[in-house]
Recover the amino acids of this structure.
């Protein structure tokens, strides 16, 4: 069915209907264990941590959409990311993009370090800096593009070339764009990671993580880790992500259109110091971004004068929910310094440009005109 467009494949795939019953929704298989005829005969499934048909439906769906060989569903984005890091061993080193998601920063700096896994943070918009950060023991280069919360763009192809020349793997957190807009495996990335809590499920009602491996060798290793660590996604939540996936393209299109309109509005506003959105022609990563992605996405951030201005603006704004998270049907406004990036010490945050005036907006499905009117009344206050 791969001759269909992405939009059609979201609906017309292997799980279009259940082979056993014709049901047009993937059945939720609650069983934790599966009957065996005797101790020598194992069926397709034996125990749900090791394999479950509902989870497998989600895992095959995401693998197909990302263009990888195998997908893995985890209890959260952080469970996917943390399990992927278990591919590393004591004495290994990882090069990480400097404005990485706060939870990933915490995992690298306060958990992996205790197991003897070293790290270096670099500005991944600078390929020379990445090349210099690579050590003989570097095993992974970890990307997030566009990054959270400053929407910096990494040249995926450039990083993959560097990684191959130095015999290391590449991981990429594709949460912000989803495979609808960016498919990193097509550029040679080895492992794609997701907080499926965000756009993939899309309704602020499930925590989930996904990983997709480019090749069988890596997939086999990750499968062993998924089964060993055991942070698998429950079946009800797998079903919710599968349902969210069906509307991914329409949600992304509408939200992205709104984000572009709002980014232009904010960029022209006297009370806004900076707007970070790769869809804006003057974004420093604009050209690279559009070589590797099909759109600017639905997340942007913008900088006001300082914490006081943020406090007044966020108290006056009516439509977006003020919350951590992103990628939902409702617009979500958040304050990275005290929310998604609270795990990052102040000095590290400021060094990265995540200032006390920064707000992040994930645009939902409301009318962009209503959102702009709402923002304007908030600025007036
Ligand atoms: C880019 C990115 N990666 C990973 C995560 C972690 O995902 P989860 O909250 O599902 O564990 C988040 C959460 O906000 C995120 O924004």
């Amino acid at each position: 069915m791969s001759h269909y467009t992405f939009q059609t494949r979201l609906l017309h795939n292997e799980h279009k209907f259940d082979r056993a019953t014709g049901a047009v929704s993937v059945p939720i298989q609650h069983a934790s264990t599966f009957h065996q005829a005797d101790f020598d005969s194992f069926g397709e499934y034996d125990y749900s941590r090791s394999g479950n048909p509902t989870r497998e439906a989600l895992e095959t769906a995401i693998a197909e959409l990302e263009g990888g060989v195998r997908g893995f569903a985890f209890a959260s984005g952080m469970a996917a990311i943390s399990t992927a890091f278990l591919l590393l061993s004591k004495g290994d080193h990882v090069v990480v993009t400097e404005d990485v998601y706060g939870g990933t920063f915490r995992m690298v700096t306060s958990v992996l370090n205790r197991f003897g896994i070293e790290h270096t943070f670099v500005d991944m918009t600078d390929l020379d800096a990445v090349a210099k950060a690579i050590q003989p023991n570097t095993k992974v280069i970890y990307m997030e593009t566009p990054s959270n919360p400053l929407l910096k763009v990494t040249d995926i192809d450039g990083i993959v070339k560097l990684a191959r020349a130095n015999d290391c793997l590449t991981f990429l957190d594709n949460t912000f764009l989803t495979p609808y807009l960016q498919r990193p495996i097509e550029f040679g990335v080895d492992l794609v990671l997701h907080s499926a809590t965000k756009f993939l499920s899309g309704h602020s009602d499930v925590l989930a993580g996904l990983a997709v491996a480019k090749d069988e060798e890596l997939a086999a290793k990750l499968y062993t880790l998924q089964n060993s660590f055991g942070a698998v996604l429950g079946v009800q939540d797998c079903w919710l992500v599968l349902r969210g996936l069906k509307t991914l393209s329409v949600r992304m299109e509408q939200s992205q259109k709104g984000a572009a309109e709002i980014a232009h509005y904010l960029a022209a506003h006297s009370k806004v110091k900076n707007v970070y959105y790769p869809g804006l022609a003057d974004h420093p990563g604009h050209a690279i971004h559009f070589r590797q992605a099909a759109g600017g996405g639905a997340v942007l951030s913008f900088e006001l004068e300082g914490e006081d201005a943020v406090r007044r603006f966020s108290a006056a704004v009516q439509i977006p929910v003020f919350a951590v998270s992103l990628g939902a049907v409702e617009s979500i406004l958040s304050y990275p310094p005290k929310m998604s990036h609270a795990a990052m010490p102040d000095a590290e945050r400021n060094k990265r440009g995540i200032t006390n005036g920064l707000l992040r907006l994930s645009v939902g499905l409301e009318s962009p005109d209503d959102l702009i009117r709402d923002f304007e009344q908030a600025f007036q206050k």
About this structure: The chain has a mean pLDDT of 96. The chain has two domains: 6-245, 249-380. The pocket of pyridoxal-5'-phosphate is lined by residues 76-78, 101, 103, 144, 148, 173, 175, 195, 197, 207, 209, 325, 340 (CB under 6 Å). The longest strand covers residues 138-144.
